[in-house]
Amino acid sequence: MARLTKPFTICCLLGLLLCGSAFAEISVATIDMQDVFDAFYRTKRFEKELRTSADMEYLIKLENETESLKVQMQEVVSRDKSFTMSEEAKKENREEGRRLVAKIQERENDIRQIQRKVEKNKLDERREILAILTTTIEKFAQDNAIDLLLDSSGVTSNGIPPILYANAKMDVTQTIISQVNQGHEEEIKELNAAIEAADEARRAASKESPVKEGQ
Prior knowledge:
This protein is mainly alpha-helical. The chain is built from seven helices and two strands; from the N terminus they run αβααααβαα. A two-stranded parallel sheet has the order 1-2. It starts with 8 loop residues before the first helix and ends in a 9-residue tail after the last helix.
């Protein structure tokens, strides 16, 4: 899932905090929230469910059919340039082209509808997962007397990393990943295998051309 951009003001805020004498003893740590999100077992559950869902299977089928129809359309265009075709043959060829265009448009409309549904499901699940992670991370910071926890993932609106430098000892990413996934280690291995199998099946399906004119 896409990384979030951050306002450049985070760097200014940190500078102000660290310059003030009142904050001389401030405890600062960093975390890569994208890495935590991606490694979380709930995220992997959703990714596996998404890849094996009926919507995704239908989407793959539509995408493959659309590509096949486009190849057929290219053949129609190529034939139409032939100088040896009779006018009657050209008329039939162009009629076939119109039928193919209609089929392509129909499938592309279906693809957009499913993509919108899938994206909505992704956003809803992302909100739930981030709420769980935020609560866990806030408690971790409080329990470990961390005053400021900075997200090192993503970039600012200017394309600059939000943290230009931080000692690796300040990073708590792996600690958080271990904590949120405690007790789910074996499940994660199974989910990773299922996700890879689903991706491989999609790659294999993309090589097929299931649609022939007339279907």
